[in-house]
């Protein structure tokens, strides 16, 4: 089975469309590590896509914020503005779907999906030490996560651990593998291209990908929606 792993779509329609076009023919099912909405101008489009096409979607912090499941004072002003705007434009049906999304970890065919970490869905695993601290929460040797918008991950092994740089990685049961496909809709690793990954269970490989998309389109839709311009500008720099 080939799993297309998506995370942090953030209501970016142009990025999502470009990823799906690029991934066509390379996957059997789609899995989603959360943050379908927030920041971006097309939350209903992103939700409709996930409702119809993702086999599993778990909730992210921005999904919770958009439907009132979290306190907005934890958010910076720009994120708060976008959460309120998103909550206002979501259809009732789509808001209900988001509100009912499961919390990770979600186990799928022997591996897991989490948004932040297996211990705390809102925690950021940025460094190796963050991953080591979260290892106790892992119940499978392979986990996909998001939240940081940084493509790559961590391999934890008793004789040494390492950060994983995007490439084609073969996983096994001798290590604990935390793999981040990168963010579809708002990359923050300095590469503005949309991030995604494919896990092929037969060969046990995770392949990381980046895809260019029409950032101008998303920028203009952000501005036209009345969302903070900085949310469009940051997309050009991948920060
Ligand atoms: Zn996010």
**What would CATH call the homologous superfamily?**
Metallo-dependent phosphatases
| CATH architectural grouping | 4-Layer Sandwich
Ligand types: zinc ion
The share of residues in helices is 25-40%
Unreliable segments of 5+ consecutive residues: none
How many strands in all? 12
What string, H for helix and E for strand, traces the elements in order? EHEHEHHHEEHEEEEEEEHH
Terminal CA distance reads 33 Å
Strand fraction: 15-25%
Estimate the mean pLDDT confidence.
97
The structural class is alpha/beta
Shape: globular
How many structural domains in the coordinates?
1
> Looking across the biggest beta sheet, what order are the strands in?
3-2-1-11-12-9
Question: So what's the CATH class?
Answer: Alpha Beta
How is the main sheet built? 6 strands, mixed
Count of helical stretches? 8
CATH topology: Purple Acid Phosphatase, chain A, domain 2
Radius of gyration: 17 Å
Task: Provide a descriptive summary of the structure in words.
This protein is an alpha/beta fold and 239 residues long. It has one domain: Metallo-dependent phosphatases (Purple Acid Phosphatase, chain A, domain 2). Helix content is 31%, strand content 22%. The chain has eight helices and twelve strands. It has helices at residues 13-23, 43-53, 61-66, 77-89, 92-99, 128-134, 215-224, 230-237; strands at residues 2-6, 29-32, 54-57, 106-108, 111-113, 142-144, 152-156, 162-164, 168-170, 176-180, 194-200, 205-211. The strands form two sheets. It has a six-stranded mixed sheet with strand order 3-2-1-11-12-9. The protein has a six-stranded mixed sheet with strand order 4-5-6-10-7-8, with helices on one face. The longest helix is centred in the middle third of the chain and has 13 residues, at 77-89. The two termini are 33 Å apart. The chain binds zinc ion. Zinc ion (ZN) binds next to loops.
């Amino acid at each position: 089975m080939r799993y297309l792993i998506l995370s942090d779509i953030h209501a970016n329609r142009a990025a999502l469309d470009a990823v799906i076009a690029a991934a066509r023919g390379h996957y059997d099912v789609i899995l989603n590590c959360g943050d379908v909405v927030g920041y971006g101008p097309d939350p209903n489009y992103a939700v409709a896509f996930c409702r119809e096409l993702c086999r599993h979607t778990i909730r992210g912090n921005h999904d919770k914020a958009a439907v009132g499941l979290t306190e907005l004072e934890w958010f910076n002003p720009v994120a708060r503005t976008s959460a309120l705007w998103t909550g206002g434009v979501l259809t009732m049906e789509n808001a209900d779907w988001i509100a009912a999304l499961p919390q990770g970890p979600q186990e799928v065919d022997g591996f897991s999906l989490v948004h932040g970490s297996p211990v705390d869905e809102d925690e950021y695993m940025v460094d190796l030490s963050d991953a080591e601290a979260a290892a106790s929460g892992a119940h499978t040797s392979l986990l996909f996560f998001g939240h940081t918008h940084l493509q790559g991950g961590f391999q934890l092994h008793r004789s040494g651990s390492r950060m994983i740089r995007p490439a084609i990685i073969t996983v096994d049961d001798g290590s604990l593998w935390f793999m981040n496909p990168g963010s579809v809709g708002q990359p923050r690793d300095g590469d503005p291209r949309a991030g995604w990954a494919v896990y092929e269970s037969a060969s046990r490989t995770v392949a990381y990908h980046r895809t260019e998309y029409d950032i101008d389109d998303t920028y203009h839709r952000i501005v036209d929606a009345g969302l903070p311009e900085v949310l469009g500008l940051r997309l050009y720099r991948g920060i």
